[in-house]
Amino acid sequence: MSDPTVAPRVIIVGGGFAGISCAQQLAKHDVDLILLDRNNYHQFQPLLYQVATAQLAACDIARPLRGIFRHEKSVDFRREAVTAIDPDARSVTTTSGSVLSADYLVIAAGAQPNFFGTPGAPEHSLPLYSVNHAERLRGRILDVLDATAERPELGGQGSLNFVIVGGGPTGVETAGALAEALRDVVPERYQSLGQAATVHLIDHGDVLLAPFSEKAHAYAAERLQRDGVVLHLGVGVKEVFPDRVTLSDGDTIMTRTVIWGGGEKPVDVVAAADLPHGHGGRIDVQSDLTVAEHPQVYALGDAANIPNSDRVALPQLGSVAQQSGAWAARNILAEIAGNDRTAFHYKDKGIMAMIGRNAAVAEMGPHRHEVDGPVAFAAWLGVHAMLLSGTRNKIDTFIAWGWDYFSKERATAVVDRPDATRIDWGDDDEGEKPEFDLGSTRPQTLDRGDGDGRT
Ligand SMILES: Cc1cc2nc3c(=O)[nH]c(=O)nc-3n(C[C@H](O)[C@H](O)[C@H](O)COP(=O)(O)OP(=O)(O)OC[C@H]3O[C@@H](n4cnc5c(N)ncnc54)[C@H](O)[C@@H]3O)c2cc1C
């Protein structure tokens, strides 16, 4: 039996939306809390594409975890990656070799890109799931523009084709922002390069933004096409090479920039844990967010399949992660106080996606009231600014957005990791050549298959 004079210990793995919100609730009570994250910061994934397209700086969307908990003396933040989880012992092993055990274990380690076994994708595509990824992508975009400005013949090698895989919110938002930057910002700096560049968006489904309504599918497609984005719908990516992608319909697109927004799966340490894994490889949890047969082990956010009241798994969204984190804390505190845990109730505030300047789609509330255009654009900005962690980040982001809206300045358009983004243009290498180049003007229709979305 535990000693009532010693505060119960809780270990939280992951300082994302779910981990932070759980820790913030627990920190107000007499709990000995260890928060572990492989990074020293909390990142706001919904705005990663704006870092990648130089609208925002990384520090606008990332916040040091020690700063978030600077007033909470009961929170012991440790910057360590967890390498193994033992649910029976409620313990974790970290990269330093320490084994930490607790009364309650909260698994909130999020997700990583899922390449679905696509050959070449892990090596040659650029995913967009972390600040690190966003900075690398920004560097790659600037590298190909700089190189092509100096050597226009590289355009013939597809240097100005930007290929985005995945027509869910991540792919659509990135495509819209990139097309806008190529239209409005790039021509000022690189003369004619912007006009020669093309964004290709590929999805094996028939529609964009699959989790949204049919009206939103059509709106997103029409708006992106108006901005010059070439849609490849009903088509899968067969293989990614350093200089091109091949598609399931036999086409090839020459490119040096393949952006992967094609899906996600739990991080390796979660996948390897001896716990029940269900759809998408995520941990199946019960209605009270604990794992079956492990009443003191919780799995939250993107790491978990969290059932709603109809027993259907909720989507991988920031709001689900945040609310599940707070609810898990409530259940832990209830149990410590000798009360019963209660079933998680998700407050559905709706979904939204940005497409471009004055263009977004939003489906508000549980009854999905649909809005698009400038109203949805304004709502998107307001909601995302409010969700950002930290007053300074909110203010900086609002200023950056205002600046960006009224000027074509992109202050963060810097290549700060030249080694990570350097491209081998293979001038001397005759190597394997594609059979043909798709070019940039392939006409597209929207009349095939099922959509794919982040959710
Ligand atoms: C590009 C993109 C755009 C998105 N846009 C939206 C949006 O507009 N609206 C919306 O609602 N949702 C959006 N989402 C989804 C939303 O960001 C996620 O659902 C949410 O971040 C999940 O929160 P989480 O706490 O479960 O995981 P995360 O926020 O991913 O946090 C997991 C944490 O665990 C840490 N971690 C991972 N492995 C380890 C380890 N082995 N050891 C220690 N720490 C570890 C990570 O460093 C990270 O800090 C988006 C996601 C992406 C990728």
Short description:
The chain has about 450 residues and is α/β, with parallel strands linked by helices. It folds into two domains: about 10-40 and about 80-115 and about 265-335, FAD/NAD(P)-binding domain; about 120-260 and about 350-405, FAD/NAD(P)-binding domain. It has 15 helices and 26 strands.
Please supply descriptive tags for the structure shown above.
single chain; 455 residues; alpha/beta; FAD/NAD(P)-binding domain; 2 domains; six-stranded mixed sheet; five-stranded parallel sheet; 23% strand; disordered C terminus; binds flavin-adenine dinucleotide
Task: Describe the 3D structure.
With 455 residues, the protein is of the alpha/beta class. It has 2 domains: 9-38 and 80-113 and 265-336, FAD/NAD(P)-binding domain, CATH 3.50.50.60; 121-262 and 350-407, FAD/NAD(P)-binding domain (3-Layer(bba) Sandwich), CATH 3.50.50.100. It is 31% helix and 23% strand. Strand 15 (237-241) and strand 16 (244-247) form a beta hairpin. The two termini are 42 Å apart. Mean pLDDT is 88; it is low at 428-455. The structure holds flavin-adenine dinucleotide. Flavin-adenine dinucleotide binds at residues 13-19, 36-39, 45-46, 48, 81-82, 108-111, 128-129, 169-170, 267, 269, 301-303, 316-319, 321. Residues 13-19, 36-39, 45-46, 48, 81-82, 108-111, 128-129, 169-170, 267, 269, 301-303, 316-319, 321 line the site of flavin-adenine dinucleotide (FAD).
